Amino acid sequence: MNSSETIYKGIKDSGINFIVSVPCANLKELLNLIDADDEITHIPVTREEEGLGICAGAYMAGAKTAILMQNSGLGNCINALGSLFELYSFPLVMIMSHRGTEGESIIGQVPMGKATPKLLDSLDLPYYKPTNHKEAYDAVSKSWNESVESGKVVSILLEIKYWKLEDD
Q: pTM value?
């Protein structure tokens, strides 16, 4: 199973059925798997905070929601995470391609790569940084229930080296 298939299986097993996404090269194969699944509603958006608003509405309508995005968009989400999701304890899973980490070829990604965990910590939001397929599956498959129980957004940060893992 490759990295995208692992994350997809975790999404399916978690019961997530509504996904908003912002384009990202690392998420391309995963998004293709999601698009092919008739049980998951997939809404592509152009900005992350737009996606959070859509996820909030979908959750209120009964959906189990996630957003797939690059970590560089986390800065665009800070206000919505604090003023909407924290205030109302809406559950959400954020699956992020964590750019700017070891192996990054674009130097401009590095500052946000370093800041991402600090931003999540400052918002008191739990996150996982899986290093292998099992850790990634475990994090994704339990993240929805954890988000519901804690009343907090739960993030999975998938570093560049994760996407380069060989099949298990």
A: 0.94
